[in-house]
Amino acid sequence: MMRLAGKVALITGGTKGVGAATARLMAKEGARVVVTARSEGPGREMEAELCRSGADALFVPHDVSDQASWQNVINAVEKRFGALDILVNNAGVYVSKPFEETTLSDLDLILNINLRGVFLGMQLALPLMKKTADEGQAGAIINVSSTAAMAAPLHDSIYSASKGAVQLLTRSIAKEFARGGYNIRVNTVNPGIIETDMTERAMEKMVATGVFENREAAVKALLEPYPMGRFAMPEEVASMILFLASDESRYLTGGAFLVDGGETA
User: 138-183 pLDDT, tens per residue?
Assistant: First the structure.
């Protein structure tokens, strides 16, 4: 059964990691997929890959921190598909520093992408999602948060703050949309450490700055809180996003859904 047959899904940060895995999985499940990212080259490659698989796919260049860029994306979605059923606010950045070394530039970067981007996405997508919902389709917004919203790791002060803000914003909007009868559910997915390029770069930086002696030591330390003893794969996070986007989760809103290998247990 095609779990998203005929639905239109917009995925930010959709060219790598969790975003790319989500785009592929949603396309496989019958969705018409719009992926966005800053870099046009990888974006066009993802669009071509999805189209080769038989999906109806579109790439739109996108800066999630910019209101005009968001409006351009929504306009492109409406022009191409006339509807929007699913919004996945996946784009994010990571900064890990001791608090004393954290700069205002670091703070601005984190909040502009991780929080402002989610806020703008929900606000500017809402008119089209409400129109789609009014025509009988239930809508779903999935914001990618983190276990850092619940238990802040060492040296992750501003990253944890941004993801905690996304968590509470999601809960508040979920109640507002439900009581307003919008027929749009809003949830977060909260992964632990995922095996992505971002994680690899973070470990390389930790080794380069002397936090850990080598990559093996970094992996061992980072996995210590995880009873399952490994990083999550992007596809495992994508599976949870798919569930929350599908009608199988039609009574779930305002929730935080962990994909963390037991980290927060």
Answer: 999 999 999 999 887 777 899 999 999 999 999 999 999 999 999 9
List, in order, residues 6 or more apart from 262 with CB less than 8 Å away.
Answer: 226, 227, 228
Among 10, 141, 25, 132, which residue's Cα sits nearest to residue 76? 10
Q: How far is CA 102 from CA 96, 98, 156, 202, in A?
A: 8, 6, 10, 16
Catalytic residue among 159, 182, 226, 251: 159
Instruction: Pick the closest to residue 235 from 41, 26, 54, 36 (CA basis).
Output: 26
pTM of the model: 0.94
Please name the amino acid found at residue 173: I
Is 159 one of the annotated active-site residues of the chain? Answer: yes
User: pLDDT digits over 36-71, tens only?
Assistant: 999 999 999 999 999 999 999 999 999 999 999 999
Kindly tell me the burial class for residue 41, based on how many C-beta atoms sit within 10 Å of its own C-beta (0-12, 13-18, 19 or more).
Answer: exposed
Give the C-alpha separation, 158 to 161, whole Å: 5
Detail the DSSP E strand segments found in 44-116.
57-61, 86-89
- 115 three-state secondary structure: helix
Give the span between the Cα atoms of 177 and 186, in whole angstroms. Answer: 8
What does the alpha-carbon distance between residue 142 and residue 255 come to, in Å, rounded to a whole number?
10
pLDDT in tens, 16-25: 999 999 999 9
Cα dist from 188 to 77, 176, 178, 243, whole Å: 23, 16, 16, 12
Q: What is the CATH code of the structural domain delimited by 8-194+233-259?
A: 3.40.50.720
